[in-house]
Specification:
Number of helices of chain B: 13
Number of strands of chain B: 2
Structural class of chain A: alpha+beta
Number of strands of chain A: 6
Strand content of chain B: under 5%
CATH topology of chain A: Nuclear Transport Factor 2, Chain: A
Largest sheet of chain A: 6 strands, mixed
Oligomer: heterodimer
Shape of chain A: globular
Order of helices and strands of chain A: EHHHHHHEEEEEHH
Number of domains of chain A: 1
Shape of chain B: globular
Largest interface: A-B, 54 and 55 residues
Number of helices of chain A: 8
Order of helices and strands of chain B: HHHHHHHHEEHHHHH
Structural class of chain B: mainly alpha
Distance between the termini of chain A: 23 Å
Largest sheet of chain B: 2 strands, antiparallel
CATH superfamily of chain A: Tgt2/MlaC
Strand content of chain A: 15-25%
Chain lengths: 202, 250
């Protein structure tokens, strides 16, 4: 079945611990390879701390939402996932949608934290890619072959934040565009209805 | 991951796909497109049937299916066993791809796991640092320059592409176990592949069920995840979103 080719690794949000990489910087860019790498290193440290806390799943998901809000450009991710529909919408509707999206992502990916316990991620590389930076890491979870997790980092908002995670080629932003698009169709194009559905999803 | 070798009924279905298109590198993706899915209506119908089969066999996360849950070590054993049986076929494909290094490593793995690993039930080779390197004729076709073709959903087997589906059929003919073993023994390999698929479905239940039963459009999710992961495995381009060229995230 479909499933057999899809391993759990593809849909996990993971952290990283890292060595250092002294890479080149883009001339004139505010963000550089080292900063991108250091952001992912800190992010991973925070995620590991949440996992090691031994809290209940519900409490961990709340903590994860805070980590996500701190290190990810949630506004960009949410609006990019929403696509053209966001342009015509009111500011208030988009803001409510963005908040609901943040919780949805935290629940959806946070649920997988159990699988990460005892695991380790190592940052192996960081490099400029197009107009942003890619931090490459390898995740080693108990009883699984190592797999590839890439973090896309930019500073469009003025802060260094990640905006995409690629796990064994599977692009979080692209899959969420597909999913949010499907939910918006089910909501008959209504952003408030989509927002209500997102609050229950994940 | 379980391989999709050893499935005979699909040979018939796949006969319908033009082999000529394969070697002429059919269906290059149009620029910017993420996939070619001209059979979407038909694919969706097959997907819906596959979901029913999956729910019946394994449940949907809420209610249980009819297949009993294997204890974890048993599931691992099934997966290891089928993966080891597939190793000779992997070696043939690596040779066809002109990659002798991986061919030799997989041969060594096969010898170690078949002996020390008790017929392949265990995977001591990985512990020795020889990691699994699975491949198939779909990858061989890719190395030879074939395009991906259209996205298709196969009955029971799920997401595939024209190239991968043809690869599966060719793998049956290429697999030394299928061709060299006498009849009853070669059918055991099929049983092992089925048991491995079931075990893998169970081991990854949370993820599989979140995609199949919690998505707003499980067909679209399975399609994008399959294609992106497969292209990554094959070393084809990874889809990159450039936020500075994205008109929607402001």
């Amino acid at each position: 079945m479909a499933s057999n080719r899809i391993s759990r690794r593809q849909v996990m949000v993971l952290g990283a611990a890292g060595a250092f990489y002294l890479g080149s910087t883009l001339p004139g860019a505010a963000l550089n390879v080292e900063e991108a790498r250091s952001l992912v290193g800190k992010l991973v440290g925070d995620i590991n701390a949440v996992i090691a806390s031994g809290k209940s799943e519900g409490a961990m998901i709340k903590d994860f939402e805070r980590v996500f809000a701190r290190y990810a450009d949630v506004r960009y991710i949410a609006q990019s996932a929403l696509g053209p529909a966001g342009r015509a919408a009111s500011k208030a509707d988009v803001a409510a949608y963005t908040t609901a999206f943040q919780g949805y992502i935290a629940r959806k990916y946070g649920k997988r934290f159990r699988e990460f316990i005892g695991g380790q991620i190592e940052v192996t590389d960081a490099r400029p890619l197009k107009s942003f930076y890619e931090v490459v890491s390898t995740a080693r979870l108990k009883g699984q072959s190592p797999f590839d997790v890439r973090w896309h980092v930019f500073d469009k908002s003025g802060k260094d934040l990640f905006f995409n995670i690629i796990i064994e080629g599977v692009n979080m932003l692209a899959t969420e565009r597909t999913e949010i698009g499907a939910m918006l169709d089910q909501a008959k194009g209504s952003i408030p209805a989509l927002t209500a559905a997102l609050r229950k999803a994940g | 991951m379980p391989r999709l070798t050893s499935i005979f009924p699909f040979a018939v279905r796949l006969g319908a796909i033009s082999v000529a298109c394969l070697l002429s590198a059919c269906a290059h993706l149009p620029e910017g497109a993420e996939y070619n899915d001209p059979y979407e209506a038909k694919n969706r119908a097959v997907h819906a049937t596959n979901l029913e089969i999956d729910t019946t066999l394994f449940g949907d996360g809420k209610k249980k299916g009819i297949v009993p849950t294997f204890p974890r070590p048993v599931a691992k054993g099934f997966i290891n066993f089928a993966s080891n049986l597939a190793a000779p076929g992997d070696v043939v494909n690596r040779v066809l791809q002109g990659k002798p290094g991986p061919a030799i490593e997989t041969t060594v793995r096969f010898v170690i796991n078949t002996t020390v690993g008790i017929g392949g039930l265990f995977d001591p080779a990985t512990a020795m640092g020889l990691e699994k390197d699975e491949t198939d004729f779909g990858e061989t076709l890719t190395v030879w320059g074939s395009g991906e073709g259209d996205y298709i959903v196969l009955p029971v087997l799920g997401p595939s592409t024209e190239r991968d589906a043809i690869g599966m059929v060719v793998d049956l003919a290429l697999d030394p176990l299928n061709t060299l073993l006498p009849r009853p023994e070669s059918t055991y390999a099929l049983g092992a592949a089925a048991a491995s698929s079931a075990a893998s479905r169970q081991v990854n239940a949370d993820l599989v069920e979140s995609i199949l039963y919690e998505s707003a459009d499980s067909y679209a999710q399975a399609r994008i995840i399959y294609l992106q992961n497969r292209r990554y495995q094959l070393g084809e381009d990874i889809y990159v979103i450039d936020p500075y060229e994205d008109p929607y995230g402001q």
